């Protein structure tokens, strides 16, 4: 299921931050901070999947260089409490691949340039699974300047962009949150996925779900180390309750399907019992009640049971019987696959419980901390893999139960070998049907010639 994350942050000088340092970290490059006289080197940073700078047309080419761009911003913004840049932090749906993520980022950044006329510096980051991050956590940092580009000069405008000032910021951010949700749903649909995201809060959606508490960097770091906190435990409980509520419709649907299947089986059983009862009655009525005058009672009895003996199941053709047998064999084969997947899911549940117990191992106070951290990282990776395999099996079972069993050549061959007489009769029927179709095709030219002659007359 796709998740929605869109946050807006401010990179401010008053907080002791540098636009050059922020850009170097996000892009994984080495930039020179001329204002502070420092070299910001993040070339060893891993997980940088894609970086790109977006700008309006007629922008000064010097500003398309990352180092030149943010040093210019540091010079233009002279106040000691200046907001140097703003940043959109977004999460990509885990259903999208690398190419689809880049297409989605391009579309979002181009729209940002179009609306506000600013320069955008974007980077896609892959998750750091070794440090305990979720393997689905592909996200992007989208930095953009606080001043728009003067299209006449190609440099920064003298006045700052007012779309994100105190008066308009809330409305502008809400519009962007909605835009990003719509864009995400478009790309999910384009990639063939039915899941959707919603930018509104759970309260606005009125779906009965509870919002989690913001954890922050410190709580997240402790969580990755396997250390539980009051906030993380409460969030885990909220997520579990929300998951149960979201699965209620699926559970109800499954129960309704089981009820319908049971009702159909009961109806079939009743019909079979009725036919069996009629057979027994007819066989009982055929035996003479009086041994003295069997000839006199034979005719009336036959006349009485005549209507009941005509109640028979419709006779199926050889082709229909053969198809039913192959479908039954394919259904049995499909059920074996489902049973195997369910058995594997039971084993995965057991493995998940064992790994969960290992994850609760307390951190040593003095010796063995490094080994404990390595074991906890391995355990978290195992838990993620088990959950992914469990969800995959669940999806496979759902698809198999919904689709009609596929009859392959193996089922056809098996039924033909077990019922050779029925197979020959089926082939004979098909041959007769083909002869009838051939006669019809042969008659069509004659009919067309007759019709043309009639038109000529």
UniProtKB/TrEMBL annotation:
<feature type="domain" description="MobA/MobL protein">
    <location>
        <begin position="17"/>
        <end position="224"/>
    </location>
</feature>
<feature type="region of interest" description="Disordered">
    <location>
        <begin position="418"/>
        <end position="457"/>
    </location>
</feature>
<comment type="similarity">
    <text>Belongs to the MobA/MobL family.</text>
</comment>
<protein>
    <recommendedName>
        <fullName>MobA/MobL protein domain-containing protein</fullName>
    </recommendedName>
</protein>
<feature type="coiled-coil region">
    <location>
        <begin position="331"/>
        <end position="358"/>
    </location>
</feature>
<dbReference type="Pfam" id="PF03389">
    <property type="entry name" value="MobA_MobL"/>
</dbReference>
<feature type="region of interest" description="Disordered">
    <location>
        <begin position="283"/>
        <end position="302"/>
    </location>
</feature>
<keyword id="KW-0184">Conjugation</keyword>
<keyword id="KW-0175">Coiled coil</keyword>
<dbReference type="InterPro" id="IPR005053">
    <property type="entry name" value="MobA_MobL"/>
</dbReference>
């Amino acid at each position: 299921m796709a998740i929605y994350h869109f946050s807006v942050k401010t990179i401010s000088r008053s907080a002791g931050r540098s636009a050059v340092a922020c850009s170097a970290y996000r892009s994984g490059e080495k930039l020179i901070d001329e204002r502070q006289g420092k070299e910001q080197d993040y070339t060893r940073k891993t997980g940088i999947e894609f970086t790109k700078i977006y700008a309006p047309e007629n922008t000064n080419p010097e500003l398309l260089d990352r180092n030149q761009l943010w040093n210019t911003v540091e010079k233009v913004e002279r106040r000691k409490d200046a907001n140097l840049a703003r940043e959109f932090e977004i999460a990509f749906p885990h259903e999208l691949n690398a190419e689809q993520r880049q297409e989605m980022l391009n579309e979002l950044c181009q729209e940002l340039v179009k609306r506000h006329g600013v320069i955008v510096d974007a980077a896609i980051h892959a998750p750091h699974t070794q440090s305990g991050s979720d393997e689905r956590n592909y996200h992007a940092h989208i930095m953009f300047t606080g001043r728009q580009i003067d299209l006449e000069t190609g440099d920064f405008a003298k006045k700052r962009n007012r779309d994100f000032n105190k008066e308009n910021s809330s409305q502008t951010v809400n519009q962007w949150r909605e835009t990003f949700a719509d864009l995400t749903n478009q790309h999910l649909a384009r990639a063939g996925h039915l899941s959707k995201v919603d930018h509104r809060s759970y309260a606005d959606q009125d779906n009965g779900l509870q919002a989690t508490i913001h954890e922050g960097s410190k709580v997240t770091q402790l969580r990755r180390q396997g250390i539980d906190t009051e906030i993380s435990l409460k969030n885990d409980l909220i997520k579990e309750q929300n998951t149960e509520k979201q699965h209620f419709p699926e559970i109800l649907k499954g129960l309704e399907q089981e009820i319908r299947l049971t009702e159909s089986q009961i109806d079939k059983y009743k019909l079979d019992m009725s036919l069996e009862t009629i057979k027994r009655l007819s066989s009982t009525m055929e035996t003479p009640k009086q041994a003295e005058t069997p000839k006199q009672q034979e005719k009336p009895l036959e006349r009485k049971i005549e209507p009941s003996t005509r109640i028979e199941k419709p006779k199926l053709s050889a082709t229909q019987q053969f198809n039913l047998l192959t479908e039954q064999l394919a259904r049995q084969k499909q059920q074996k696959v489902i049973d195997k997947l369910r058995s594997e899911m039971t084993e995965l549940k057991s493995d998940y419980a064992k790994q969960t117990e290992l994850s609760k191992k307390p951190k040593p106070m003095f010796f063995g901390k490094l080994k404990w951290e390595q074991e906890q990282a391995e355990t978290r990776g195992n838990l993620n893999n088990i959950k992914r395999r469990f969800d995959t099996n669940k999806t496979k079972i759902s698809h198999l139960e919904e689709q009609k069993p596929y009859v392959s050549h193996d089922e056809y061959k098996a039924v033909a070998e077990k019922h050779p007489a029925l197979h020959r009769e089926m082939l004979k029927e098909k041959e007769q049907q083909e002869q009838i179709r051939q006669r019809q095709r042969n008659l069509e030219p004659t009919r067309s010639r007759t019709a043309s002659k009639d038109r000529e007359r």
